[in-house]
Amino acid sequence: MTDEDLGSFADFGGRGDDTSADEGDNADGDDAPTDDGTAGGTADDVAGATADEGTDEAFERVGYDGADGDGLGVLAVSEGLRIGEREDETRLRAYVTSANRSNVRLGRYLVAPYPDGESLFCRIVGLEYGQRFHGDDANEIHARRVMGGNDIDEDDYTFIADLEPVSVLYRDGGELRRRMPDRVPKPETVVREADDDEEIKTALKIPDSGVFLGHLAVGGEKVRTGATPPTIDYRVTDDYETGDPLAFRHTLVAGGTGSGKTHTAKNVLRQFLAAERTYPVEAGSERDVRAAVVQFDPQDEYAQMHDDNPEADTEDERRWEREGVAYGGHDDTVAFVPKVGNATYTAAHHDAEQIPFTVPFSMVRSRPWLAASAGLNDNQYPALRTLLKRFFAQHGNGGTYEEFCAFLDDPALKEELDESGRIHEATYEAVMRRVNGMPNGVFDQDARPITDLVREFVKPGRLSVVPTYHVSDSRATETVVLALASLLVDEKLSSDPRFPRIADTPLLVGMDEAHNFLADADTVQARQVIGKFTDAAKQGRKERLGLFLITQDPQDIAESVFKQVNTKVVLNLGDEDAIKSVNIPPSLAEKVPYMETGQMVVYSPDNSEPVELLGLPTCLTRHGRG
Q1: Is the pLDDT confidence value at 270 over 50?
Q2: Neighbouring residues of 270: CB distance < 8 A, sequence distance ≥ 6
C-alpha cells in the first residue's frame, strides 16, 4: 500500500501530523505501548514524524538499493548468536538485504570474517521470510490487491538465512588452513558469498590434485569464482604424500537407470588410466608403474573407452586440458571375451581388440564353490571339497568338468564314501545334482584358458574389459565373473602367488551391477565369496588393490564389503532403502531423489566435507550405441 492509496488527510480536516485524535483517546497524556514495546509507535515512526513535522509527507518511505560493498547481509542476534559443540546448540542466522534475496539458495557457501583476519565458513541450511511490521496479510483485500498485479515490496519483510558453520579459515605462515568452528563471530558481521577458489577448497578440505570427479555445485548449479576457470574442480587424493591413495580404499558409484551412472564411471576410470598416474611397485620402492584396470561389464559398454567420443568438440577438449582432465579413447583397451557354450559376441560399437578365453576347470581346485549351480549347505560344501580333492589327485590340473561329472556318476564311489561315513548317500546325491546342474559350456571351451593369459589380462596401464552381455544364463555369467575376480583377489592376498604379474601390479577391479555378485546370502558359497572380497577390501591399501563397485541397488551389497568403501558417489536414486543404505548425511540424502542426470553427491570422509557435484556433460570417451 502506498501513500497515494491512503489519500490526503487534509480531506478529513486535519494535518498529517495532527495529534488531537490521540489526545482525545488518551486524556491522561500517557502513550499506550505498541507490540514491540516502544511507546506510541516504533523508533522509525517517531523519527519520521519528527523529521517531517509541519509537512504533508510525514510517511514518505526512504529508498535504498541494498547494502554497500559485496556483502549479502549481516549476522543477526535477535534470536541469539551461538557456536556450540553440537549442531542443535548452534544458532547462527543472517539477515539478507532485499537487493540480494533473489540470488540466495539453500546450500550456498557464505563467509563471515572475524576482526583479526580469520573467517567463519558457513553453509546456508534454511531460508525464511518473516513480517517486518505487525499486520495481517491473510485477508481478502490483501490477496485481491496482490493478485491484481501489485509488486511485493521486499522492504516489508525480513529474510533470514540459517547458517551451519563448516570451518574456521586462518593463515599460518602465509598458507591458508582450516580448523573446526571454535569461536563465535561478532554481531552484525557482514556476510558475503564465498567466491575464492583457495578459500572454498580449503574450507571444504578438497585436495588440489588427484582423480577428477566433477565440479562443485549447489542445487544443480556449479559454484562460480573469480578465477580462471571459474568452476571448482573436485578431486580425490591419489598419492602417498597425504596418506594412502583412496583408489585402494575403494569406491562406490550408485545410481538408478538414466542417472548417468555409467557415464560417470567411465569418466572416473579414464582418470586412473592417465599416463602420468603411477604408483610404487611396493611399499618404499622408488620405481613407479601405472595401474591395471579390470572392468567386469554385464552391459558391454566399457570397451568403448578404447575410442574417442565423436560428440566431443574442440571447445570441450580445450576445457579439459585447462583443468588437467585426461580425455580421449584409451588405446590400450582390450576386450577379454568369455567363451561360453554357443554364445557369440559381436562388437560393432567399439574398436577395441578382442581376445577370447575360457575358464579352465582347474580353477575350481582352490575355489570349490564355482562347481555348484545352486546353494550348498554346511554338509554339502565339505563333501564337494572332498570329492574335488580326490578327483584332482587322480586327474591332475588337466581334469575337466565333463570328467568330474563322469567321476561322480560312479555308484561304487558313492557306496564307498557312504559306508566309510565320510559322505552320506543323500549328501553325495545332492552334490552330484548341483554339479550336473551347472550351465552348459562354462568350463574348458575352445579358447585359451584365462590362466594362460594373465600377463595380457593384467598389464600396467591397460584397461581389460570382460563383457558378459552375450552370455544369456545368469548363473554362467556369475561363475565367469567370480572366477576371474577371485583369481585377482587370491593372487593379491597370497604370500606365495602363482602369478607375480598380478601381485606386483597396482590393480583396480571394477564391477558393474556389483549387487549381483556381492550380495549377502545364507549359502556356504555366498559366505565364501563375501569373505574373500571382505578380506580384499580390508587389505586393499596394503596390497594396492582397489574395488570400484557400480550398482543401482547398493542395499543388496554385503555389509561387510560395503562398510570398507571410503568414497561414495551417489547419483539419482528413487528407492528409499537404496538411499538409506549409502549412509550419507541427511542434508544430502534428501536431495538424491530429485537430482538430474549427472548431478551427484560425494561422501568421502577422508578426502573432503560431503559435497554436491556436477559431472561432465560430455563423456571423455565414446559412450552410447548411437
Answers
A1: yes
A2: 305, 326, 327, 330, 620, 621
